[in-house]
Write a structure and sequence with these properties.
By secondary structure, the protein is α+β, with helices and mostly antiparallel strands. It has one domain: Immunoglobulin-like, CATH 2.60.40. The protein is built from one helix and ten strands. A five-stranded mixed β-sheet has the order 1-2-10-9-6, with no helix packed on it. It has a three-stranded antiparallel β-sheet with strand order 3-8-7, with no helix packed on it.
Length: 128
């Protein structure tokens, strides 16, 4: 029983720290990345300054694992901001000065741990 309680506490602590790491915006990478139709949606305010976005991941339903696709090629740059790839962390979208509205960028993601496969899609960030 003690092991189960410890596991639950660690899971909750991990969830809280993951949420804090992405406090600058909210949203999800969405679905469809494996078929080339990924559709992420995030929202932020101008006060947030930047939006931290996790890497999409390869899902293995048999092993119940997720492998982040950390090797990123931006295939369509955002029109009203910039996107940077931060090794081991994810993507960081930064809107241009004074920008409010929707901005979209697209990526192709791979992982050395998953040979011969890629994830593709676009992410729309709404700045309010």
């Amino acid at each position: 029983m003690r092991g189960t309680i410890t596991l639950v506490v660690l899971s909750v602590v991990g969830l809280c720290s993951a949420t804090a790491a992405h406090a600058a915006c909210s949203g999800t990478n969405g679905r469809g990345w494996g078929s080339g139709n990924g559709a992420g949606k995030f929202e932020m305010t101008t006060k947030d300054k930047a939006c931290n976005i996790s890497f999409p991941g390869f899902i293995d339903d048999v092993r119940k694992t997720r492998t982040p696709a950390t090797e990123v090629t931006v295939t369509r740059a955002p029109k009203s901001g910039t996107v940077a790839v931060v090794a081991g962390k994810g993507l960081v979208y930064t809107p241009g000065p004074g920008f409010k509205g929707q901005d979209k960028f697209c990526t192709r993601n791979t992982s050395a741990k998953v040979k011969g496969k890629s994830l593709r899609g676009c992410i729309t960030v709404t700045v309010r």
